[in-house]
Amino acid sequence: LYKQVVDQMIREGQAYRCFCTEKRLEILRKESAKMRTPNIYDRRCLHLSEAEIAEKLEAGVKHTVRFKLSPLPEGYQDLIYGEVRHDVFALEGDPIIMKSDGYPTYHLANIVDDHYMNISHVLRGAEWQASTPKHVLMYRAMGWTPPQFAHLPLMSNADGSKLSKRQQDLHIRHLREKGYSHEAILNFVTLVGGGFENKEYSLRSIFSIGELLQMFELSKISHASGRIEMERLDDLNNSFIRQRFNNNKDAFLQECKDLLISNTKDLPGDIDLDTNFEGKIEWL
């Protein structure tokens, strides 16, 4: 499928084969760094004749396929940030959309997959804003209608440092193993970045996923990066436990008993869970 799209782009002059070696591309990169200018591919292979291209293909010369950029002066409309302008034509070189091994790059796979899956809205991190003009141009080159784009502000640690996949304490599985309810985790996430109409941002309020869906409004998402403050999760989890206790005390107490029994069955001696069990619960 990706090859069919690339072949169509080549036939229609929207893309071209690039036979430049890695050595030549490295020389171009070093020259750009020396001149302190953007590393823009010089389109040397765009001007190859049909005969030259055929000769190289016949000889088995490795090549990539580049998308031929064009100006996008009007920018594009971001559902969160409004109009976004980034002139990829002036600031970036023609991107590679098919690697020499025949596999598509992200830029190509992204638009082809989304088009054929009938994706209407693309929500992704703000770091992809600069790449979106390339994607809009590629949709246009294929005669496809681009989806609507919304770029989400990034989340950071409480001290402003970047989040890392290696931070095990942020993994959902780790939080569940630590005893946090999925309701508390869900509400904790909604405290970061906005995105809700008429939502009470309180550590004492626990909303169901249905209620959150009713309040969600894409245009209300904040432009600023959100900071994750883990201590707020403790407060929300405590609020959820209190809420469950108040809504159905008997069921909650029985669940606590069952949990204690399952976690203390291998300990020596008997544990009395019948005498004033409710009075033994210590609230945080």
Protein described:
With 284 residues, this protein is α/β, with parallel strands linked by helices. Helix content is 41%, strand content 15%. The protein contains twelve helices and eleven strands. The protein has helices at residues 2-11, 22-35, 50-58, 88-91, 106-116, 132-141, 172-177, 182-189, 209-215, 231-247, 249-264, 277-280, and strands at residues 15-18, 64-67, 76-78, 82-84, 96-98, 121-125, 148-152, 155-157, 194-196, 216-221, 226-228. The strands form five sheets. The protein has a three-stranded antiparallel sheet with strand order 1-2-5. It has a two-stranded antiparallel sheet with strand order 3-4. The longest helix has 17 residues, at 231-247. It is elongated. It starts with a helix and ends with a helix. The model has no long low-confidence stretch (mean pLDDT 83).
* β-strand number: 11
Structural class: alpha/beta
Mean pLDDT, to the nearest integer, reads 83
Large-scale geometry? elongated
Characterize the largest beta sheet: strand count, sense, and whether it forms a barrel: 3 strands, antiparallel
Portion of residues in beta strands equals 5-15%
Report the total helices: 12
> Gyration radius, to the nearest Å?
28 Å
Main sheet: which strands, in order across? 1-2-5
Helical fraction equals 40-55%
- Element string (H = helix, E = strand): HEHHEEEHEHEHEEHHEHEEHHH
Q: Spans of 5+ residues with little confidence (pLDDT < 50)?
A: none
Cα end-to-end separation: 57 Å
